[in-house]
Amino acid sequence: MSTLYYMALAEGGRWDATLKQVGAQLRPYDQFLRTALEAAERHRPVLAWRDPTRDEAATFNARMRARIERSNEGARAAERRRDRREKDIPRGTWIILEPPPWRAEEPESTFEEFLRSEEFNDQPDGRSTGKITRMAWDNEGCALLVDHPPIAVAPQTGREQLRSTEAHPHGRLLWIRPNTHNLRCQKYALHSLDNFPVPSLQPLINLLRTHPSWPRFEQVTLDETAWTFLKEESPGAPLRDGTTEQRRFVEVALASPDFALLEGPPGSGKTTAICELIVQLARRGLRTLLVASTNVAVDNVLERLISWQERLPPDEQVVLPVRIGTSERVSSTEIEPFLYDRLQRTVCDNIVDFTESKGGTELGSQARAMLRQTLLQEEASHDRSRAASPIRQLVGESVNLVCGTPIGVLKHPEIRERREPGPRVLFDVLIVDEASKTTLTEFMVPAIYAAKWIVVGDIKQLSPYVEGEDIGRNLRHWVLDLGAEAAAYAAVRAFQATPGSGGKMVRSLIACDSDDAEALRIEANARATPCADLDNCEVQSVAGVPGVIPELIAPNLVFGRPDTLAAFEHRLPENMDLLEGALPPLSDYRAVRAHFKEEEPESAKDWSTEYGWRLVRSFELRHNEVERATLQAQLDELLPKSLNSGITKKLRERSDQIRRVALPSILELLQTGFERLPGWKQGAVINDGLPPAALAQRMVSLSYQHRMHPDISAFSREQFYTGSDDRPALLRDARSIERAWGYRRHARRALWVDVQRPRNERASENSAEAKIVMRELQHFVKWAQHDGRRDKPWSVAILTFYRGQEALLRKRLLKLTKQHGNTRNFAIPSTHPAVNVTLCTVDRFQGHEADLVLLSFVRGGTRKRGSVGFLNSPNRLNVALTRARYQILLIGDRSYFAACRSELLQTLAGSPHYMGDIAWGEDQ
Fold first, then answer.
1. Residues 658, 660, 661, 667, CA torsion sign
2. Is 652 helix (H, G, I), strand (E, B) or coil?
3. The DNA2/NAM7 helicase-like C-terminal domain covers which part of the protein (predicted)?
């Protein structure tokens, strides 16, 4: 049937060639999603939990009661039906979610998934006896109210002294069923586009084929009186810097028949331009679907529109918005009345209220009674079936702005209740905000329901977040498919045992058969890694000393059959980091190790994990070729040497395919593309980007920033937003920026507070930096409470790159504020606050801003050319440095970064933009 759809496409050319090209371009995406889906169904997310303190539990209960009481107050005083619904206060036991013991840097997405889940299990095997039900939750406290307390998992017999690991989990742990909804939605979107490409989706098909036509179009010019958010401040007054560019984007978006792109650096007014475009679309009677990867980005736009529209007379309120989501997910109480469920209940109850009104003729009263009974029966039946009632459909079809995340908007009744096998255009325009964090497959989920696509973002900020497990699972799939499992295992163990391989060296003792031993020997020799193949070692006399085995003098890799290892037990080196395979008892050897080590080491990472995180990091450094070369060399070294060249080539091609599919954003694909398919002489748009002429007519760049004091924006402007022959320079400072304040502790608005890293601390923590952060915060709070007092609180963002440091800072904030039960937001003082503090990782804080930013780097030490982790990502560093309005303090070991391996961080540490006001004396 798909051939009929391709034959019906409006654009000329060979339909059969288009069908083949689209299939070839989408096939790698489908393979990635299918493998990720299969693996996700076998993987159960896990987190640790703890009991709250008495103060924390009191805070959670108080917040829960306050939310319910606000709802019930209106219900008790209401006259209309829609306000008469009182809620009961749920009962249960509070628990607080924490990272599992073996993974301190657990992604934020795992916690969000747990807070969304309704059922949990406290047993690793998923037994139904361990089922636990969620009664309520507290986002700020990362806490759950459950129907009964979970039971701690007991360790296996004989392993009570070992710490909890992923392979041997025990202690206070909680599991949930895997959520594969996102992956299934992405897979459905690709399948729909591939098999049912209706003519209105021709531009989406054009992204996937060679030589498509991109028509030129006539520019729309709006009259001066038509502007709302971008109007003159007063008649005849000059426009604010950047407004002309914002207006041009709106006009391009209105005129384009297919795509329009808006790129803009931090603080350049992208949200304002989106608001203006939505108003102009509504005035033209067009329906808009607005999505973003985060709820905050969606709510920022919607809140601006609501605030603007509430000041207008009812007949001028042209935007009819609805927010798809729940009250717990929205970031503002102003948005709650526009939630879809709330809105449809309001409409239904208003109609029922009307049917209960008195007066009129007897015939009219009977008609109203019949209508009321029918409506109530309809609503009851549809509540049970979860299908959309006529009233709910009416609400869904009446609004002209639908807002949510790319997956969340699928709950809109027009989409959810679709009956067609493929896509159906329901919206005139799709606007994707924060598109630099949206992959092609995520974009396609809502895109197949629109007729035009507006893509907004900044490719210099963070790329899409991809689950490392999805990358690893896909790599494992291809390793198994190519029959390379044994070779990959041998390669990673030899790589880890090689000094200077790019991570902590892992010496391994492995029990294996002769085939695996051969692979280990080849891989070790290929890397010049000292190894001992005990099955082929000979006892020799060296320098007159009999009974010597030279290979056991200083090996990093020791392997052999179990019986061979048992025979050489008393000669085995005790400094092995990892013991693997079907090992014999080796009781004497383990006793010697126990004398030096408290416990057995946890399992080392497998080949897919080691290769996968380097694949992601190499993509993050795609604009930093010098530092990317180091990671690329490590990826090359990780490829098995014991395979024939043909299989090795296929494994490399498969890993390149995973990178090409999983990591680029839709914004980057449209602007520049990302890698052609192997063997393709001509690229599609997603490989090469839009043709220059088409891109020039469809893309607008915002060049002015209105957020930061000029001292704060200077480094990012020079490092990340310099112009080129075909690109304008961005992040110029608008003349309208006013950032005067009376805080005089530091003379400069952007400065580095130099702090040496203490010895013997966890890699993700730095107590010295935490101390400086708290000191600077307390100085600012003291000023804000007195000399700096103003009508609204000042905002302070405490940012760091690591979850471990975030946890350490949280403990100190809790000690300072006594606001137990909070994890991210703190008010100082708690009543009539002068300062609102947000504690966050850099990645999570994209899209936010604060008056003062305190940025903790964590890394440091005395080692020359030391490791910097993922701090050298240009996009991540750019986000970190561009959040502050008035002042930013970089808190870290400046000398360490000045001599580290990263040229980018060396430049940062030596930049004059952060010189001249270093803390000394008692402040050091």
1. positive
2. helix
3. 697-894
Provide mean pLDDT across the span 699-722.
Answer: 97
In the DSSP assignment, the letter for residue 449 is: T
- Give the integer Cα–Cα distance in Å for 249 and 702: 9
Same domain, 760 and 840: yes
**Under the phi-then-psi rule, with left for phi > 0, alpha for psi from -120 to 50, and beta for the rest, what region is 224?**
alpha
The percent of residues above 70 in pLDDT, for the chain, comes to: 92
Give me the residue label for tokens 């360490």.
896
Same domain, 124 and 167: yes
Strands, sheet with 850-856, edge to edge from the N-terminal-most edge strand: 750-754, 884-892, 850-856, 794-800, 835-841, 825-828
Residues 86 and 235 in one domain: no
* β-strands 93-98, 143-146 pairing: antiparallel
Place of tokens 């004059």: 912
Domain end marker among 152, 177, 202: 177
Q: Which segment of 439-448, 558-567, 779-788, 866-875 scores lowest on mean pLDDT?
A: 866-875
Within this chain, do residues 107 and 204 fall inside the same structural domain, yes or no?
no
Query: Tell me, what's the pLDDT at 307?
Result: 94
Tokens 């302070």 belong to residue? 796
Q: What are phi and psi of 734, to 5 degrees?
A: -70, 145
Identify the pLDDT of residue 103.
Answer: 86
Among the listed residues 435, 495, 440, 487, the one whose alpha carbon sits nearest the alpha carbon of residue 461: 435
Phi then psi for 174, rounded to 5 degrees?
-140, 135
Average pLDDT over the chain reads 89
Which domain does 30 fall in, by range? 1-43+192-320+429-464+664-702
Element containing residue 206 per DSSP (H, E)? helix 202-206
137 and 78 in a common domain: yes
pLDDT in tens, 895-920: 999 999 899 999 999 999 998 554 44
Same domain, 297 and 207: yes
What pLDDT does residue 923 have? 53
CATH code, domain carrying 680: 3.40.50
* pTM for this model (two decimals): 0.91
- Sign of the dihedral through C-alpha 769, 774, 775, 779: positive
Q: Using 50, 70 and 90 to split pLDDT, how confident is the model at 330?
A: confident
CA 773, 779, 782 angle in degrees (round to 5)? 135
- Counted domains in the chain: 3
Say yes or no: 749 and 862 in one domain: yes
What six digits make up the tokens of 545?
A: 């000393």
Judge contact between 850 and 882, C-beta under 8 A.
Answer: no
CATH number reported for the structural domain that contains residue 773 in this entry? 3.40.50.300
- Residue 865 is predicted with a pLDDT of 73
Q: Write the CA distances from 580 to 510, 558, 924, integer angstroms.
A: 5, 11, 47
